[in-house]
Amino acid sequence: MAGQTETGQQGAVGNRWLIAAAGVVMQLALGAVYAWSVFRIPLTKEFGWSISEVTVTFTLSIFFLGVSAVFGGLWMARSARGPSASPPPSSTAWGSSWPACRPTSCGGCI
C-alpha cells in the first residue's frame, strides 16, 4: 500500500510541475503585449504614423485581452475539464495570429 501512495504522489508532483511550467509560458505570452512600448517609437519613425495611430493597436490588444479573459473564464467555469480546457484553443488562436499579422507589417511577405 505504501508503494501505491508513493507512486500516486510522484505522479501528482510531476503533473504539478507540468502545470506550473505551462502557467509560466502562458504568463509570458500574456505579458508580451506589455512590451508594446518598445515598438511604439520605431513604428512611428518607420511608417510615419503618429503616436495616436500606433497606440490604437495597443488599445485594441488590451481590449480583446480583457474580453477574451471574461469569456474564457466563463467557458472554463462551465467546462468539465476546468482550467485545462482553455489553453489549447487560446494558444492556437494566439499562435495563428502572428503569421496572420505578418503580411501587414512587411508588405505582403510571409
Mean pLDDT: 76
Order of helices and strands: HHHH
Class of secondary structure makeup: mainly alpha
**Cα-to-Cα separation, first versus last residue:** 58 Å
Q: What proportion of the residues form beta strands (DSSP E)?
A: under 5%
- Using the CA coordinates, give the radius of gyration: 20 Å
Number of helices: 4
Task: Tell me, briefly, the overall form.
Answer: elongated
Domains counted in the coordinates: how many? 1
Count of DSSP strands: 0
Biggest sheet overview: none
Low-confidence stretches: 1-7
Give the proportion of residues in helices: over 70%
Could you walk me through the main structural features you see in this protein, from its secondary elements to its overall organization?
The protein has 110 residues and is mainly α. It has one domain (2-105). The protein is 81% helix and 0% strand. It contains four helices and no strands. The protein has helices spanning 2-31, 36-47, 51-78, 87-105. Helix 2 (36-47) runs antiparallel to helix 3. The longest helix is centred in the N-terminal third of the chain and has 30 residues, at 2-31. The chain is elongated, with a radius of gyration of 20 Å. Mean pLDDT is 76; it is low at 1-7.
Short description:
With 110 residues, the chain is mostly helical. The chain has helices at 2-31, 36-47, 51-78, 87-105.
Keywords summarizing the entry:
single chain, 110 residues, mainly alpha, 0% strand, elongated, disordered N terminus
